[in-house]
Amino acid sequence: MHRRRRTALSVSVALLAAAPLLTACGGEAHPGAAAVVGGQRIEVSTLQSAVRDVREAQRATPESAQLIKDTAQLSQAKLNSMIFDRVLQRAADDAGVDVSRKEIQETRAQAATQSGGEQQFAAMLLQQGALSSGQIDAAISREVLLNKVAGALGANTSTPEGQQKVLAVLTKTSKEMGIDVNPRYGSWDYQQVRLGETKSPWITQVTRQAPEQQPTDA
After folding, report:
1. How many domains does the chain have?
2. Percentage of residues in the chain with pLDDT exceeding 70?
3. Is residue 54 part of a domain?
4. Residue 57 pLDDT more than 80?
5. What is the pLDDT of residues 83-121, one digit of tens each?
6. How confident is the model at residue 158 (pLDDT cuts 50, 70, 90)?
7. Is the pLDDT of residue 29 over 70?
8. Long-range Cβ contact pairs of 45-54 (< 8 A, separation 24 or more)
């Protein structure tokens, strides 16, 4: 369990190549939106703020140049996580599961202890997951909620069959919601439940140790 949590948090933000931020979505159908998920907008300004938080944290580190270079497509990574979180929340609602504030706090405290303290934990997630300190709780919530959805489905996520079972539900949910992405960021892959070629913050990343992977979403 501890290893799964640590892996999930270190790869929870998708890492891709950069693209310009836009002020329109689709053919000007949703001005100012980076994406529309289930009829709800994800504003470009919200996406920009998430990216800015990470960049500011990266610039404050000795390895800032390398971190920024390695996360050149941070906008898509953050948008991928924002879309995925809405799909996951709908799937969780349908499954009748949720995550409490206490669960998030306990999971974070445990992971921080394993990492040598809160400061070291935050530094690791910035480096490996492109997460600012203010984005950590959302990444933890995602992991806990994803595991709860899998549990509600009776899916063993340590097996390919269990992973496919969860993926099928997330695919179905995202199709039902409908996802309209600003074309400058790419398009939503319903089958893989991710934005374009991003590494999705979903079950296969959560359950395997993959230190060679680039960080994936929050």
Report:
1. 1
2. 77
3. yes
4. yes
5. 999 999 999 999 999 999 999 999 999 999 999 999 999
6. confident
7. no
8. 46/82, 47/21, 47/75, 47/78, 47/79, 47/82, 48/21, 50/78, 50/82, 50/135, 50/218, 51/75, 51/78, 53/132, 53/134, 53/135, 54/78, 54/126, 54/130, 54/131, 54/132, 54/135
Largest CA distance in the chain: 49
117: helix, strand or coil:
coil
Model confidence pTM above 0.85? no
**Amino acid at position 26, single letter:** G
Q: What domain range is 73 assigned to?
A: 2-207
Secondary structure of residue 101 in the 3-state scheme: helix
Spatial separation of the C-alpha atoms in residues 115 and 128, rounded to whole Å: 13
Rounded Cα distance, 13 and 168, in Å:
21
